[in-house]
Design a protein that fits this description.
- There is one protein chain.
- By secondary structure, the chain is mainly α.
- It contains 17 helices and two strands.
- The chain has a two-stranded antiparallel sheet with strand order 1-2.
- α8 crosses α17.
């Protein structure tokens, strides 16, 4: 399986240059939108959450303002990976216009007001519930985390330090998101395998042989899919051009293709627009109606494809593909090659030692859960044993009281 590198350090500026992303990963309809529509509503998607960051709205608003300054945009294009990761690029904020700085000042004041409201509510919650002093430390740590993406020592203006903190915080958070996704997928695959092995252990020899045979047949069925084109190469894009766009393959034009799939007409292909190009390809190997195809693996496959294309085409590592980058990639010799894309099933995402360690942890977790269930059932039974005679006695007393009342009447 072709391995995809972990998130590169150059990706740290992603949220400072990413525009409003397309929400759906399903291949969008091929319709061109007038460029002026995006200009009329620059903040129409400002509240969309794509990365799950608590400061994402603020981040996108800063993006919108900075992108409107040509001087800063040019400095960004000229910056290298080290300048971006370190936040050194932030020093160019001093050269933007007064109007831009005023807008950034206002954004920062609004963000600080939002954060103060959050901290005030947290403080009220802790005080109102009489929580121990240890919670005060937690509150202090939470405050530090909430304010990590800006310079809260200066509440009045957006300075170089604010932009630097925003970049550095985005760097760490994006790396964490990427690592978490990979870690969760590996855990998912190991849990699936451990569960399968656990079921086999419960079977006799004949049943185990039949189960193993069925498992191998399912794997074979999944593997018997049409060849997948290498994502981003000529054959793959021409297939999208013909089958999704309904155009003649022989008339494929990279420039036209780019504009067709820049669905929000912002002049770049963002991550969601790139992912949309792979849906037809993914359909070849992952069918949601077939039991042998795993949709969680499809999602990870899509991420691998997107990461591969970004690594090959996105030369300035801003997690977007510009028209120039796209056209340049179509001129390379590799673009013409039609090598088969190796899907996830070609290689395990975990080692034997990792699986063994996970299995031990899994079995320990199951035992602890079983012990808790036994204790809970025992307590429940003991309570019932006590409650039953009490209820019987209460019923007898009620009957006696009823009879006495009837005799007196």
């Amino acid at each position: 399986m072709c391995k995809v590198d972990m998130l590169s350090s150059a990706d740290v500026f992603v949220l400072l240059i990413v525009g409003c992303l397309v929400n759906s990963i399903i291949c969008p309809p091929v319709t061109e939108k007038p460029a002026e529509a995006a200009e009329d509503h620059p903040d129409s998607n400002a509240e969309d959450v794509e990365y799950g960051l608590q400061y994402e709205k603020y981040l996108k608003e800063v993006v919108s303002v900075l992108e409107s300054d040509e001087t800063f945009r040019k400095k960004l294009e000229e910056s290298n990976e080290t300048d971006i990761k370190s936040g050194e690029i932030a020093k160019h904020l001093d050269f933007v216009g007064h109007g831009i700085r005023s807008k950034l000042d206002e954004l920062k004041r609004k963000e600080l007001d939002r954060l103060r409201s959050i901290m005030r509510l947290q403080s009220q919650f802790i005080s109102g519930h009489g929580l121990p002093n240890s919670e005060l430390l937690v509150q202090a740590l939470e405050k530090e985390r909430l304010l990590a993406h800006l310079d809260h020592s200066n509440p009045h203006s957006f300075e170089v330090s604010d932009l630097a903190k925003l970049i550095q915080r985005a760097s760490k958070d994006l790396e964490d998101i990427d690592k978490k996704r990979r870690s969760e997928f590996k855990k998912y695959e190991m849990e699936k395998e451990v569960t399968r092995l656990e079921q086999l252990d419960k079977l006799d020899e004949k049943e185990r042989a039949e189960a193993e045979k069925k498992f191998l047949e399912m794997e074979q069925k999944h593997g018997d899919h049409p060849k997948l084109h290498h994502p981003g190469n000529e054959a793959q894009l021409k297939e999208v051009w013909e089958e999704s766009d309904g155009l003649n393959k022989e008339e494929f034009d990279p420039r036209t293709f780019f504009y067709l799939h820049d669905t929000n007409s912002d002049g770049v292909l963002d991550q969601s627009e790139i992912e949309a190009l792979f849906q037809k390809e993914l359909d070849k190997a992952y069918n949601p109606y077939l039991p042998e195809d795993d949709m969680t693996e499809r999602y990870e496959e899509m991420n691998r494809m997107r990461e591969h294309v970004m690594n090959e085409v996105d030369k300035n590592r801003d997690k977007m593909v510009s028209l120039d980058e796209f056209l340049e990639s179509t001129k390379k010799e590799e673009f013409k090659k039609d090598e088969e894309w190796q899907t996830l099933d070609k290689e395990k995402v975990y080692s034997d030692s990792e699986l063994e360690e996970f299995r031990k942890q899994y079995e320990q977790h199951v035992k602890q859960r079983e012990i808790k269930e036994i204790i809970r059932d025992r307590v429940y039974n003991e309570e019932n044993q006590y409650e039953k005679p009490v209820k019987v006695m209460e019923q007898r007393q009620n009957n006696i009281n009823a009879n006495d009342h009837h005799q007196r009447v």
